[in-house]
Amino acid sequence: xxxxxxxxxxxxxxxxxxxxxxxxxxxxxxxxxxxxxxxxxxxxxxxxxxxxxxxxxxxxxxxxxxxxxxxxxxxxxxxxxxxxxxxxxxxxxxxxxxxxxxxxxxxxxxxxxxxxxxxxxxxxxxxxxxxxxxxxxxxxxxxxxxxxxxxxxxxxxxxxxxxxxxxxxxxxxxxxxxxxxxxxxxxxxxxxxxxxxxxxxxxxxxxxxxxxxxxxxxxxxxxxxxxxxxxxxxxxxxxxxxxxxxxxxxxxxxxxxxxxxxxxxxxxxxxxxxxxxxxxxxxxxxxxxxxxxxxxxxxxxxxxxxxxxx
Length: 310
Fold this sequence. Notes:
Elements: H1 11-22, E1 26-30, H2 43-54, H3 63-71, H4 78-89, H5 96-101, E2 108-111, H6 117-125, E3 134-138, E4 152-157, H7 174-179, H8 181-189, E5 199-203, H9 210-220, E6 230-234, H10 242-247, E7 250-254, H11 257-270, E8 288-291, E9 298-301
Parallel strand pairs: 1-2, 1-5, 2-4, 3-4, 5-6, 6-7
Antiparallel strand pairs: 8-9
């Protein structure tokens, strides 16, 4: 699989990815880079902002190590840090890219994000006249057995949720991630033995930085990908590492979150993709009319393939 470093010149490769997305054959992995807009609050910025509050520099750029160091200090309040994170996350706004994301019948969405942007985007799209898909949010191991319907997209939040951080606490420290191991294991084990038609797409992760690489290694430790490729949308990849990424079965699409979904929307409109199949089905509902006893009138009946009226 070849990297896509110029989406304007590699349209055929990009459109192949788009076709898989449209056909509900894509599992989306969503990282923090998909939440940023005009304001950027990734791990590095979060550390810097909290250090300003602390009035000291711990000289640690890894967010997990940063919280581990702070946690060893008896004066440190983890609740204060988590509340601080919530105030930052509330500054994010839903973008057009989020709304496009929310209009797609993903096979599944898995995120390490804590914010509510995806939920908010689905709420906004739900008021549209062509709304089809609802979001079913899964935030713990006990919720994982839920089987979604044809019109639901399962959205798995691995690392907690700001909607109720008491029930779904944020994962930052080594201890936090240790507690989440059973959840991670079960989520990723469900991705084994998938059809070869299903692809993995990650957006919002940079495998150029230590956190992104560690996360990929953590995911791959469960061997859920087997021989599947991970398509990673990233605006600033390390182009000196392209051969390394290829050896790890990572295909880089050089694009921002916003631009990727802008191109998808344009492709959708250009190809007149106005009727998409619901998840796990390629059947479209048909309108069938049969004559009544009065041959000048007609009655509408359900399509036997779907049992639905239109």
